[in-house]
User: What shape does this take?
Amino acid sequence: MHNKDLLKKWDKRYIWHPFTQMKDYMGMEPLVIEKGEGCYLIDIDGNRYIDGVSSLWVLVHGHGKKELIDAIEKQSQILCHSTLLGLANVPSVLLAKKLIDITPRGLSKVFYSDNGSTSVEIALKMAYQYWQQKGEKERKRFISFTNGYHGDTIGSVSIGGIDLFHKVYKPLLFKTYKAPSPYCYRCPLKLERKACGMACIEAFEKVIKTHRDEVCAVVMEPVVQGAAGMIVQPDGFLAKIWKITKENDLLFIADEVATGFGRTGHMFACEKEQMKPDFLCIAKGITGGYLPLAATLTTDEVFSGFLGRFDEFKTFFHGHTYTGNPLACSVAIANIELFKKEKVLEKLKGKITLLRKGLKRFCELSHVGEVRQEGLMVGIELVKNRKTKKPFPPGEKIGQKVIFEARKRGVIIRPLGDVIVLMPPLAINESTLQELLDGAYESIKTVTGD
Ligand SMILES: *Cc1c(COP(=O)(O)O)cnc(C)c1O
Assistant: This one.
């Protein structure tokens, strides 16, 4: 057995935690997770918590799932790693076939990497190089959306639209054009949803018309802008944006790192509006939360733009050391097989309804500004004043307070600013889902009052 106090001490002494103000963290008692069981996490002191954000949006079938562990174990006896640079390996081939089968039609090539940021970075580089090699040298820009989040590498930060995360890096970033986010609760165009006629789509069209000859691609998170606070797009928004992009002969990059693998109730969010992207970026749910893996899927049209004589150097000069890792690919295959075997999407319908009903009472709390839900993605936006939508002062750390309160109630969640996120594993059962709702409700009520 390890010494618990020593673990906590060393964590504070040696680890720099991501997206964490370490000055605050070092003044707190760390919560050290030791074990996962189904939809629960267990800390080194033996306390059990519902994994209310799926260990950062990745968990599908729960922790300790036998089929997934077996897949890793079995593959580990055979081959743990071999490079994909000029060589093939068995699981990466089998997974590629599976991915092509389950993703929107038209996607026919799979390029692997290991996290969501790189899956987007790859799509950006491919789109740019595609146009360069077609001789359209002036195309160097991307259109993305305010409030968008596509990862933390410099390319994906360049197309990002969350000032809090991205502003400081501005001098390092390449220039992009931004279209307004469909954040209806705080409409960037200061309109009301009932009467706006989706004016943000016209704004997007204006951006595209003005800049179309210098643009490579449009990048967006289809259906839900996740990291910005689970901003759910109005019905029809995605289909229209895609249609306009295609009418202007530009490429469309769908970042489904968060929405992919059943999160929205569809296997991929693009299906909701029958949209066929030129690039599909997937990561978080791809291995069910067991190993890091990502993929960028694209079309024959894009792929063929990279074919040429060796000394024409149209090669895509990009690849990561662990690209196509056999262990990660094996567990991804097992994850996809479980979707079918356990009828995950069919069973999700009841849970989505339960969640919708359960969220109603949150709207009655006096500091809940808006509750947003799409599938098993939920954002509860807390505000100081409901009438004026005035936010809490950042120094009040209201989101933080709520999640610490939730821990006392056996629930682990993580806020996005003042938005409380619920993202349970797809396999969660209805009684655990109810417990998660109760824990979140009581925590918000305790911190903000009725
Ligand atoms: C999480 C996320 C990313 C980044 O993925 P990482 O694995 O954290 O690099 C990119 N896009 C979206 C939409 C995400 O939610």
Observations:
- Residues 160 and 318 are 22 Å apart (CA to CA).
- The longest helix spans residues 430-448.
- Residues 115-117, 120, 149-151, 221, 226-227, 255, 257-258, 283-284 surround pyridoxal-5'-phosphate (CB under 6 Å).
- The chain is about 35% helix and 15% strand.
